[in-house]
Specification:
By secondary structure, this protein is an alpha+beta fold. 28% of the residues lie in helices and 21% in strands.
Length: 163
């Protein structure tokens, strides 16, 4: 499962980075390893497959990177994927979603047209007794914000360490 550390800060000028095509993104990371918060723990409980690396964004969208190449920059990979598949365009597959009711944590997971992009919706994000439509629209909105802002809050690197 994934942890979110609000003390982790990764600042990216996403528009400038994406304008450079395949050029490496300039990512500044300031990680406080001792600090974990509830959202990162929630993602660690939600995700199946302890071997999967993932990247968490500011509005609770998680990009799963099931088989990232060794030595690759997980943040850069996640930003590229979310920049392409995060923003919502009404009337396109990017606007579609499904709602998963979670057993492992309170709240829901909202899926989209890309199988490795998921958004967590906490009970406090919606009105009490919210139905799937409200939850799904909330998750879709959060994914859109993450797909346009591209602010990473946590990177969970599960790649094997070569000694």
């Amino acid at each position: 499962m994934n942890n979110i550390d609000t003390n982790n800060a990764i600042a990216v000028d996403a528009n400038a980075a994406m304008a450079h095509g395949n050029a490496a993104l300039d990512i500044d990371i300031d990680i406080d390893i001792d600090s974990e918060n509830e959202l990162v723990t929630t993602w660690r409980e939600i995700l199946i497959g302890d071997h999967k690396s993932w990247v968490l964004f500011a509005h609770d969208t998680c990009v799963v990177l099931p088989e990232p190449p060794p030595g690759g920059d997980l943040g850069e990979q996640a930003i590229r994927l979310l920049a392409e598949h995060g923003p919502v365009q009404i009337g396109s597959p990017s606007a579609d979603f499904n709602v998963i009711h979670l057993d492992e944590a309170p709240g829901w997971c909202v899926t989209c047209h890309h199988p490795d992009v998921l958004t967590y919706v906490a009970p406090t994000d919606v009105t009490k007794g919210a139905g799937d439509l409200e939850v799904g629209l909330c998750g879709r909105s959060k994914r859109h914000m993450d797909g346009t802002e591209l602010n990473i809050t946590h990177i969970e690197d599960k790649r094997p360490v070569n000694i």
